[in-house]
UniProtKB/TrEMBL annotation:
Stretches assigned to the Gcp-like domain: 30-319
GO biological process, one term: tRNA threonylcarbamoyladenosine modification
Presence of keyword tRNA processing: yes
Protein name per UniProt: tRNA N6-adenosine threonylcarbamoyltransferase
Gene: tsaD
Residues annotated for substrate binding in this entry: I140, V141, S142, G143, G144, D173, G186, E190, N284
Length: 343
């Protein structure tokens, strides 16, 4: 049978997610279920992800989530042709929960198991509704990664550049914390930045004009910190909403200029006509609009993941796994997780 149904589990960080997809070669993938149980509230009181809490909650929520996904897809476990899970990069104890569950399902049903790279999930997420993955320049901007890659097709990736220190989302989250905003800082900074003037503070655009394709965001983060200290306020209790808005808008403007500038330059240099954006930070509307404008101006096409597929989810993992499964691939049941897995 050419049409395949696949169930995937994502548990690399603080979202437990299960998705069921169906598809065949050369046809857009149908998402039959995409369930997410977010732990953000649980970690918020700690100001960041606590690994021990994350893995315990993955193990509590995974089984009901698998049943919920099967329910939504109106399927039984026996209808699934293959099982997949994220096996890295991410938190070791969290990766183990999802991958062990997917292996157990594969083992019990005698169906294949596929170990999937979380970054490949993000990378391919803008193309779920397409019939194929065309050659393009990919920018992945998430909480853990900032990566520029040349993509020739599924499985053919060449890294052009990455961050030398903080990831873009990590910088958002750290600056959010400095400004006294709730975790995660990314969406909070975007919200309050709408009230601010991005030209208030002139923050550095590190490496923007360097010839390589790497990024650095720690200098920008430190510049925000020094500016805050210069304002003479105790950091935790800054109550001045206008100042926070201006700092947020100015910080965000710097991040966006760096991301857009370096991506356009890389696409030009490598002769790629299509740019694809993915990862949690690509949810940011101001960033999307800046990319849309720059692509229009310079003659590039832009593909962005649908909003529900920007932050961590299992549909993107299921899609990456389905492409591999349709290509005849599978992974051994004793495949290990790798917290530092690369693309
Ligand atoms: O892809 P993701 O869910 O997880 C990782 O694989 O890291 O990305 C999460 C990151 C966080 O750093 C979060 O602050 C950031 O994406 N993020 C945003 C926005 N929404 C989420 N950053 C900027 N603007 C947003 N609207
Ligand atoms: Zn992610």
């Amino acid at each position: 049978l050419p049409v395949k149904t696949l169930l995937a589990i994502e548990s690399s960080c603080d979202e437990t997610a299960v998705s069921i997809v169906r598809g065949e070669d050369g046809a857009p993938t149908e998402i039959l279920a995409s369930e997410i149980s977010s732990q953000i509230e649980l970690h918020r009181v700690h100001g960041g992800v606590v690994p021990e809490l994350a893995s315990r909650n993955h193990s509590l929520r995974l089984r009901p989530l698998v049943e919920q996904a099967l329910d939504h897809a109106k399927l039984k476990v026996a209808d699934i042709d293959a099982f997949a899970a994220t096996t890295g990069p991410g938190l070791a104890s969290s990766l183990l929960i999802g991958s062990t569950a997917a292996k157990a399902l594969a083992c019990a049903t005698g169906k294949p198991f596929l170990a999937i790279n979380h970054l490949e999930g993000h990378l391919l997420s803008p193309f779920v509704a397409e019939t194929r993955v065309p050659p393009h320049l990919a920018l992945i901007v998430s909480g853990g990664h900032t990566l520029l890659l040349e993509v020739k097709g599924p499985g053919q990736y060449r890294k052009l550049g990455g961050t030398r220190d903080d990831a873009a989302g990590e910088a958002y989250d750290k600056v959010g914390k400095m400004l006294g905003l709730p975790y995660p800082g990314g969406p909070e900074i975007e919200k309050i930045a709408h009230e601010g003037d991005p030209s208030t503070f002139d923050f550095p655009r590190s490496m923007l004009h360097d010839p390589h394709h790497d990024f650095s965001f720690s200098g920008l983060k430190t510049a925000v910190l020094y500016t805050l200290q210069g304002l003479g306020e105790p950091l935790e209790v800054i109550q001045d909403r206008r100042t926070v808005a201006n700092l947020s808008a100015s910080f965000q403007q710097a991040v966006i200029e760096i991301l857009v500038g370096k991506t356009i330059k890389a696409a030009r240099r490598h002769g790629l006509k299509l740019i694809a954006l993915s990862g949690g930070v690509s949810l940011n509307r101001t960033l999307r609009e800046a990319f849309e404008a720059a692509c229009r101006k310079h003659g590039f096409r832009l593909a962005v993941a649908p909003p529900a597929m920007c932050t961590d989810n299992a549909a993107m993992i299921a899609f990456a796994a389905l492409l591999r499964h349709l290509g005849g691939e599978s992974s051994p049941l004793d495949a290990d997780i790798d917290p530092n897995l690369r693309l």
